[in-house]
């Protein structure tokens, strides 16, 4: 069987590069690494005073290297995943300061001649995380042993990775046999392995999802990071391939409180939670007729504690299922875990 993906040996700790990105949703790699691997992040670097900030020390590449950093990670992803010309001075400075470069962009570091030449000159590495393994097969559709939970969403960049990581950690704390299965560059950087689903040719999406989550013991759970949304005008294809190939027993639907339109595409309204549940279950039944929805993961990061608790309670009553913010935790999250495990 094809291996999952090359296990990463990233040079740690990191300096996180934010470029000139002003929308936090496009800096989710940087935020994810800060939130799930803070001990490996020495600081941040941007090339614009208007760029988002992580609240980490602002360091030059030379300062970061002096504090022990071994690489700089491009922690942002613009539309199309391009390496911008405005970033090049900072990327070249990092190589000159003795840092390797790590990225998960669609534009690969090794395909950028100026970076290749600088890396060779300074004896540094260019590490592209979004590189699928070779020999991915087409999907078989055969049922695999073990249990699977897939985080799905109303949109991209609203908490599917955080939800999967939080559920995985909580299951482990309960003594449940579980693995986190990463499907995007940030998750792969955190986990050290995974499958870059949005870099795979569409005919092999479901096959890649099958080998990402192989057969396991009946009581083992694979908690699978979701990608995109079935309703996204650009990214629905990867969501469907992941849904069919992962054959989830349980989905958790992720949504950001207050978001009404697709990130970066304001002309497209988001679907309702009911629509999102219904479409994922209808399409998911193609490869797992027993698929069910365990509940809702609600990103309430822009709300106060009291506002978040009230909203979770009202949405739980309205939908008739658990609604929780996994990052806030609490009784709501415990009920969501119970529903995922036991129905």
TrEMBL record:
This is EBNA-1 nuclear protein. Residues 53-132 form the D-glutamate N-acetyltransferase-like N-terminal domain. SUPFAM superfamilies: P-loop containing nucleoside triphosphate hydrolases. Residues 139-332 form the D-glutamate N-acetyltransferase-like C-terminal domain. Gene3D superfamilies: NAD(P)-binding Rossmann-like Domain (3.40.50.720), P-loop containing nucleotide triphosphate hydrolases (3.40.50.300).
């Amino acid at each position: 069987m094809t291996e999952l993906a090359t296990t990463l040996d990233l040079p740690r700790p990191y300096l996180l590069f934010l470029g000139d990105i002003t929308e936090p949703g496009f800096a989710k790699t940087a935020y994810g690494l800060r939130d799930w691997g803070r001990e490996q992040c020495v600081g941040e670097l941007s090339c614009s005073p208007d760029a988002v900030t992580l609240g980490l020390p602002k360091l030059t590449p030379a300062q970061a290297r002096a504090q022990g950093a071994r690489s700089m990670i491009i922690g942002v992803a613009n539309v199309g995943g391009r390496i911008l010309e405005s970033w090049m001075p900072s990327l070249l400075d990092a190589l000159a300061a003795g840092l390797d470069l790590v990225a998960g962009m669609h534009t690969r570091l090794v395909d950028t001649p100026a970076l290749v030449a600088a890396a060779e000159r300074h004896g540094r590495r260019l590490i592209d995380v979004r590189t699928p393994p070779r020999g991915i097969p087409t999907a078989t559709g055969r049922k695999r042993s073990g249990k699977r939970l897939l985080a799905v969403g109303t949109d991209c960049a609203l908490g599917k990775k955080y939800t999967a990581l939080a559920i995985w950690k909580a299951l482990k704390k309960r003594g449940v046999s579980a693995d986190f299965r990463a499907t995007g560059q940030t998750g792969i950087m955190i986990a050290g392995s995974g499958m870059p689903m949005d870099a795979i040719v569409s005919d092999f999406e479901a096959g890649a999802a099958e080998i990402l989550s192989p057969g396991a013991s009946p009581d083992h759970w694979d908690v699978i990071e979701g990608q995109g949304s079935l309703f996204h005008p650009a990214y629905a294809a990867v969501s469907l391939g992941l849904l069919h190939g992962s054959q989830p027993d349980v989905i958790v639907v992720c949504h950001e409180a207050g978001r009404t339109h697709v990130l970066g595409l304001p002309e497209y309204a988001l679907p309702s939670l009911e629509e999102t549940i219904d479409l994922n279950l209808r399409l998911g039944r193609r490869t797992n007729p027993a698929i069910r929805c365990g509940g809702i993961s609600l990103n309430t990061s822009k709300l106060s504690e009291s506002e978040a608790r009230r909203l979770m309670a009202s949405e739980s009553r309205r939908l008739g299922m658990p609604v929780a913010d996994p990052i806030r935790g609490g009784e709501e999250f415990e009920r969501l875990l119970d529903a995922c495990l036991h129905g």
